[in-house]
Amino acid sequence: MSSNYIPSNLPAEPPRDAAQGPVGFPQAWPAAAWGGAPVAEEPGIPWGRYLAAIRRYKWMILAVVVAGTAAGFGLTRFLTPEYQVQGTLWISDNRAQNRGPVQGEQLLGNGAWADLLKSSTIMERVVRRMALYLWPAAPSDSAVFAGFEPGPGFRAGSYQLRIDSAGAKYTLATQEGTVVERGAVGDSIGRSVGFLWAPAPATLGRGRTIDFTVANPHVVAAGLLNRIDVSLPERSSFLKVTLTGRSARRTAAILNAVMTEFVATAGDLKRRNLTETSKTLEQQLDSAREALRNSEAALQSFRTTTITLPGEGMATAPTPGGADGGVGGDVGNPMVGNYFGQKLQLEAIQHDREALEALLRNPSGISADAFMTIQSARQAPDLQAALGELAKREAQLRTAREIYTDQHPTVQNLIASVQVMRTQTIPQILR
Question: Tell me: the pLDDT tens digits for 15-47?
Fold first, then answer.
């Protein structure tokens, strides 16, 4: 019986080495068994293979490059560029200067300067000064809006100003076509919607339609506040300000206006602080002058009383510079020194009591300077701590009044706190 024989082109299986162990897995055929010579790999980087791949896929690579370039160019036509301008302000640190023992309160801390620059007051001033709430549709119409300001009853929106062919009448309407106001050229325009605007007839021309948009200055100031960034590095005196916008020139002009307004506001605050400091120092000088007068009067009264006291058989009268505190009697007679020492203590206690009673009758006069001439008060730790706290809160109140009005919650809270210290805390300690 014969069987079908299919010839195989596979090379004969090479003989296995008995030392290799039992056959468990197929092994690769060597290149010599297939009739081919071994391929030697190129040393280093195979540039030939890379160039061959580029030649093979050159049209695909070219298509990807062209498509990416076209997509990038198309996107740039729809994206609006944004510009970023930066400025730096130097904040002087007066604490580092040794100006003597008498100094005023610090105006603002380093962190508070950044808050002042980003305050709504400065932003609204810049918005009104540069008329950032107004956008003419055509930049050539900017001369028409010279002197335009928002007034009472201001209504934001988009408007059209139409001038008739004779240049004698105008019509103010919204973009939807609703007529807001009609009048004669040369008169005020937009009084019914809160516009303070009286353009010159020569700038309006004849037969023109002027489109423009106005916004609430508070809203524009809030938007400007979101676009500005302020940073003050720790232990640095340079305040860095950054502003982003769509127009490089206009953005730079806005940042310059913000920095100028900040410098003007800071200078005004500093002048007010110096004025308040001078008033405080003047009050302290008056208190010291009054205390000196009282001390001189007490000294004169003491001298008069000392001269008229009975000698009690003593040969010498008390002389200044004695052994007991500088106002004793004869060195050989201690009774005189004890007498005058106790008399001085009694008079000092009586004087302190009268001064304290006067302060209790008028709590509004309680301050740290009022206790400078009361010796017993200077030796009371609790009272000195309360007076220190009162002085601190009074300084905070003066600083707050330089920034806010008396109706602001911060000022109201500080006024109430100072009043409680004067009418309750300190009188309880004195009693």
Answer: 555 444 444 444 554 544 445 555 555 567 888
Phi, psi of 279 (to 5 degrees): -65, -40
Q: Which has the minimum average pLDDT: 61-75, 188-202, 229-243, 307-321?
A: 307-321
Question: What is the tens place of the pLDDT at every residue in 236-269?
Answer: 778 899 998 888 888 999 999 999 999 998 888 8
Location of structure tokens 């030697």: 40
CA-to-CA distance for 212 and 140, rounded, in angstroms? 12
Are the beta carbons of 229 and 93 closer than 8 angstroms?
Answer: no
d(CA 413, CA 401): 12
To which H or E segment does residue 127 belong?
A: helix 120-130
Radius of gyration over alpha carbons of the chain, in Å? Answer: 46
The per-residue DSSP string of 45-86 comes to --HHHHHHHHHHTHHHHHHHHHHHHHHHHHHHHHPPP-EEEE
- For residues 100 and 93, give the distance between their C-alpha atoms in angstroms, rounded to a whole number: 15
Q: What is the pLDDT of residue 1?
A: 45
* Number of C-beta neighbours around residue 222 at 10 A: 14
> What is the rounded distance in angstroms from the CA atom of residue 265 to the CA atom of residue 120?
12
